[in-house]
Design brief:
heterotrimer, A mainly alpha, B mainly alpha, C alpha/beta, A: MetI-like fold, C: alpha/beta, D-Maltodextrin-Binding Protein, domain 2, 6-stranded mixed sheet, 11 strands, 44% helix
């Protein structure tokens, strides 16, 4: 009974999260280019997607900025969190609050103030400035993911490894890192997602002609979103979904292997 | 974890430099604008504007809707994460990924999709009509905004909470049960305190963006409900009054302070529990 | 151990992928520095074909950048974030940019097509924001009117009054901006849309507050979708979008109310610190060619000020559309937004906020 209730609960939340995605996917097959106006099934947006250089360029920028900013901000956040674990809790709270400022400020404030800062530094606005800006707002998100798990970590294992003669680096990579991996992965994924979804900060810190998907989408708003965007979103979504499924299958295999080995 | 304070500080240094350049300097810009007139004279007038009816109303509305959304996210996420953690570990990870996956749709596009669902002739009503149920129109109301916020920010609650819950040692829970604690007591006495840091992270990650959003209220609220995010956005762009926009953002910083106090408070109680 | 290897592998794949993408992403624009032109325009406002033609004909490399509102465009230009050569803002914004010394006078000797092909009345109308016709060359224009579902609305739609009609409760769309909303009650009261008298402005605000219970939503870009799908019965809309709506949903009709409306013009201007002034003039001259204007018009659907265009348009539906080519009567004695100064902007915005929070 309880187990059925649980499944129903999962299903409802699942439905809630996937309903708009279903709508978007349906929209990508809609012949009409207008939202909520179904005129027939069509694949034409998929065909024209690959002729839209603008969209493909924007996609490339989004992915590369997303990955680079997620990697850099994860490293920075991890180093910082390790240090923060060891300082007094009041200091820690203060540091965390400072780190949270970029996500607390309205995006437009962060965006415009970063634009002014980059210009003050004599940095030419372009790809690099978007990347820097994305790291700025990604670091706190990753820290929010890593910090709780790091705090819950039992220090004694690490110290035991040191006592057994492991170098600090070795002890860290073999004891601490595996424990933290779920939250590091979570932080990385979150950072990538935030980066891929940001509009305002990107808008103010980008240079001429450098678009990411969100700025491209906003530029299209006046005349209506190109349905190619829906097609692209569908493709991206399905690609990620396939990755997740592959990951799931491999993971099961890995686990099985492990069990056999033991 | 570090042998000397020196090494610890070495680890802390990159962030300090980073924060100095990319957090403090922009913050200084903001305080400068917020506390001066366009001519550059010092003033508190911009900050005090928040007490004008329209501004105060929008702040109140934003806090209220962000609070409701955060509460809804928390209420939805706890059972969800408990169920997910409970499932076999591998399947749990996959299902968790599936709950994060919707984030990979551009949020503007998925919020527009919610428009399509909630509209008068939207998907929801068409399904209801098929089932001969009465129409249920939510679009352009505060409820629609809350739905949009919960949709956009629920994963940020699920993520840290799930991570925190996976870290709880199963044996503690079993021990509690062996000692005769019922499900509710186990949750209240063991799971809740141990997962609190994750929940606090989640609350921060949901409440803060919900407080400053403006796109969701414009798209799902039909522009009928003015939130502080919309006002700040307008001051910066339409009115080009950066002084007022910055001042209103400074007012929002109060919530950093509240957030900081809460974090310290929860960590204190957390450590006491541990001891 | 296995997990760690996997982790490293994934990391290295991600890094390589990022760098490869990074290189292809950047390589395209930085190489051709000389003989280029930085254009900053509304999203989708120029047919990409036209840019290709321009590049081929002149050898000038165009870097096109797009904005979504005048207001988002302004701070980027004002702060000099990027040195754009040529921009396409709207009327009141051009006036504001002139006032803030962001533009340079054009050399009309280098743009012979402008005076030759553009109907003189557009230069006349442009005087509202560019009094000596020194800074701007019109590119697109239009009006603001009411789009309505002709199968539902059975009375004549010829006055802004209909937006206060209880019959259409919850089916009316209004524009979500201070100037565009206050313009309507001001016009109904017989005042100017550039009104500066606080008394009339407050009356206009009160009329909007009275109307609020009837309004389905205050929107900007979503108006189009909502009118096409039939979600809304009537809405205040720009004529360029009206043409798109009526082509997608023929039931929808467009009407310009008799009290008068906003005659808006988006024009080309050259920035003060432009680095490619000659190229910018060539670009404007090129855009004023009738054959180029026609390609753009077919792509965009916004009315253009090029006189010869109507006879050249091949699509009969569009040629006969009163939205694309209105009766000359429609734009007689219409007003254009003026930049009223920072203080007045603040007053307009406060009044609009009061409508929103009521």
């Amino acid at each position: 009974m309880i187990s059925r209730l649980k499944t129903i609960y999962l299903a409802i939340i699942f439905l809630f999260l996937y309903a708009p995605i279903g709508v978007l996917i349906a929209q990508s097959f809609n012949e009409s280019r207008y939202r909520g106006h179904w005129t027939g099934f069509s694949l034409k947006w998929y065909e024209s997607l690959f002729q839209q250089d603008k969209i493909i360029d924007a996609l490339q920028n989004t992915i590369s900025i997303g990955i680079l900013s997620a990697i850099i901000s994860t490293i920075l956040a991890l180093i910082t969190c390790l240090a923060l674990r060891e300082i007094g809790k009041n200091f820690r709270a203060m540091f965390m609050s400072v780190a949270n400022i970029p996500i607390l400020n309205a995006d437009i404030v962060t965006g415009i103030s970063l634009m002014l800062l980059f210009m003050g530094m004599g940095l030419k606005l372009g790809y690099g400035s978007i990347l820097l800006a994305h790291i700025v707002f990604n670091v706190p998100y990753v820290m929010l993911c890593i910090m709780p798990q790091l705090m819950a970590l039992d220090k004694s294992f690490y110290e035991a490894a040191l006592d057994l003669g492991a170098s600090p680096f070795k002890a860290f990579t073999s004891v601490v890192l595996p424990e933290l991996r779920p939250s590091i992965v979570a932080g990385f994924l979150l950072a990538f997602t935030m980066s891929a979804d940001d509009f305002i900060i990107t808008y103010f810190t980008r240079g001429a002609g450098v678009h990411t998907l969100p700025t491209e989408i906003y530029a299209e708003l006046k005349l209506g979103i190109h349905p190619e965007m829906y097609a692209l979103s569908t493709l991206v979504f399905i690609t990620v979904l396939i990755f997740v499924i592959l990951f799931a299958m491999n993971r099961k295999k890995l686990l099985n292997q492990k069990e056999e080995n033991f | 974890m570090f042998r000397t304070i020196g090494i610890r500080n070495l680890f802390l240094a990159p962030f300090c430099i980073w924060a100095g350049i990319f957090i403090f300097v922009p913050l200084l810009f903001m305080f400068y604008y917020g506390l001066t007139t366009p001519a550059g004279n010092f003033t508190f007038e911009n900050i005090l504007m928040i007490f004008q009816t329209e501004f105060f109303y929008s702040l109140k509305m934003s806090v209220l809707l962000a609070f409701i959304s955060t509460a809804v996210c928390l209420l939805l996420a706890y059972p969800l994460c408990l169920i997910l953690v409970d499932r076999a570990k591998s399947a749990g990870a996959i299902i968790t990924l599936l709950f994060i996956l919707p984030l990979w749709m551009n949020s503007l596009l998925s919020t527009m999709a919610w428009q399509t669902i909630l509209e008068r002739d939207g998907t929801l009503n068409q399904i209801l009509r098929l089932l001969s149920l009465p129409d249920f129109t939510l679009i352009n109301t505060a409820t629609a905004i809350v739905i949009g916020m919960v949709y956009n920010y629920l994963p940020y609650m699920v993520l840290p909470l799930y991570v925190a819950l996976t870290k709880i040692d199963k044996s503690i829970i079993e021990a509690a049960k062996d000692l005769g604690a019922n499900t509710w007591q186990t949750f209240y006495k063991i799971i809740l305190p141990l997962s609190l840091p994750g929940a606090v992270s989640g609350i921060t990650m949901v409440f803060i963006p919900a407080l400053t959003t403006f796109a969701i209220s414009a798209l799902l609220g039909g522009g009928r409900i003015l939130l502080i995010g919309n006002v700040i956005e307008q001051e910066f762009t339409f009115e080009y009054n950066w002084n007022l926009g910055a001042a209103l953002s400074i007012v929002l910083m109060i919530f950093i302070v509240v957030n900081m106090a809460l974090t310290v408070f929860f960590e204190n109680s957390h450590e006491e529990e541990k001891n | 151990m296995k997990g760690k290897k996997l982790f490293k592998f994934v990391l290295s794949v991600l890094l390589t992928a990022a760098f490869c993408l990074n290189l292809t992403g950047c390589g395209s624009d930085s190489s051709k520095k000389e003989n280029s032109l930085y254009v900053y325009s509304w999203g989708d406002y120029i047919d990409p074909k036209v840019l290709d033609m321009f590049e081929k004909e002149t050898g000038i490399h165009v870097i096109l950048d797009e904005f979504d509102t005048n207001e988002n465009m302004y701070p980027r230009v004002y702060e000099g974030a990027v040195h754009y050569d040529i921009i396409c803002p709207s009327d009141y914004m051009i006036q504001k940019m002139i006032a803030n010394n962001l533009l340079q006078p054009l050399d009309f000797e280098k743009i012979p097509n402008a005076k030759k092909n553009i109907d003189a009345k557009f230069f006349e109308q442009s005087k509202e924001f560019d009094p000596e016709n020194k800074y701007s060359v019109p590119y697109c224009w239009g009006t603001v009117g009411i789009m309505y579902d002709s199968t539902v609305v059975d009375e004549p739609v010829d006055s802004w009054n209909i937006l206060w009609n209880e019959k259409y409760k919850d089916k009316i769309l209004m524009q979500d901006s201070a100037r565009d909303s206050l313009m309507i009650p001001l016009k109904l009261m017989g005042r100017s849309m550039n009104e500066t008298d606080q008394k009339y402005l407050e009356q206009a605000r009160d009329m909007l507050i009275k109307q609020k219970p009837l309004v389905q939503a205050y929107v900007i870009d979503e108006a189009k979708d909502k009118l096409i799908s039939g979600e809304s019965t009537m809405g205040v809309i720009f004529s360029g979008e009206a043409l798109m709506i009526s082509l997608a949903n023929p039931k929808m009709k467009f009407s310009v109310p008799k009290e008068g409306t906003n005659f808006w013009i988006d024009s080309w201007v050259i920035t003060k610190d432009a680095e490619n002034v000659d190229n910018a003039h060539k670009f404007i001259n090129f855009m004023c060619r009738p054959d180029i204007a026609l390609i753009n018009f077919d792509f965009l659907g916004y009315s253009t000020p090029i006189e010869a265009l109507k006879d050249m348009e091949e699509n009969e539906e569009i040629r006969n559309s009163p939205i694309a080519f209105p009766d000359p009567e429609v734009y007689k004695n219409q007003e254009t937004y003026k930049y009223l100064g920072n203080e007045m902007d603040k007053i307009y915005n406060r009044l609009w906020m009061q409508v929103k929070v009521d």
